[in-house]
Amino acid sequence: MSDFSIGEKLKVTLFGQSHGPAIGCVMEGFPAGQKIDGDFVAAFMGRRAPGQNAWSTPRKEADQPEILSGLNADGLTCGAPITAVIRNSNTRSGDYEALKDVPRPGHADYTARVKYGDAWDGRGGGQFSARLTAPLCFAGALAKLYLEEKGIHMAAHIARIGRIEDAKPDAVNPSLPFYKPGAFPVISPEQGEAMRQEIEAARSKGDSVGGAVECFITGLPAGLGGPYFGGLEGKLSQALFGIPAVKGLRFGDTQNFGSENNDAFCIRDGKVQTVTNHCGGILGGITNGMPVYFTVDFKPTPSIALPQKSVSLKTMKETEFTVQGRHDPCVVPRAVPVVEAAAAIILLDLVQGE
Known about the structure:
alpha+beta; Chorismate synthase, AroC fold; five-stranded antiparallel sheet; 7 helices; 24% helix
């Protein structure tokens, strides 16, 4: 399978580079007969779009997907592959000229050069850029829309910025969504304000800060997934670790003794459920009918305005340089819908396969 593809029955392939003419995706196996809600898709993608606030890159892109195939004359998905493109417009490739010789610390510049040689398109990070999460969010929006009509809902929030943590949802009965549309994606407004101050403090120093996103999914039936390499955790992990800057992933809660961590079974509303939900809704790689939840850790944005040490690949000598370009002081707020998108794609793939 391609490095840019995910899924089996539903296969999503991303294409394009950060500063190329366009980026996009192809969705194969998406169910026929789905009406595409343009407002839903636009609102979902707008949560990821750059240039909207002080905690994101000032690069502005319309991020309006153009659907080239996969719809019939009535605007319904017809069973053919859905192809969508998003034109790139606000690029400044000159900011990346020096990277042909000096790789940025914390980026894929060096490893990409090793793998692809001088042919690699390093402008804006090329095919490694988080710019490709825009078409990922398009595909995720379609998957999420379909799942919601089937009673499967998901919502993510910022769990942490630096060392500042958001309020914790109820793991047994989470109240989705966690915040109002357009708001800073946190449960606690007070913690959200502290997070914004933390991001601004890093930005004002020319630095960056990392954090974490927590995602909850409700409505999944018991029995989804499988043991070992067919487990739901593994399938979600492959998609989630494909998101740029992801460095860690945890399902459920692992900070208790066994006597506390084991979820006692009970009968609730005539169904087998658990009193607590430390397992995150998954046992043996298979859903148990409780809400599924996981936390994704994101590293600080490696492109910072402070001087950094690197090497010249031409002279093979150490050097110091400063990154140019426009970058997020913290990627976490814009990553919230990306986490939802990646999860939605995998879940729709699994739901169809059952």
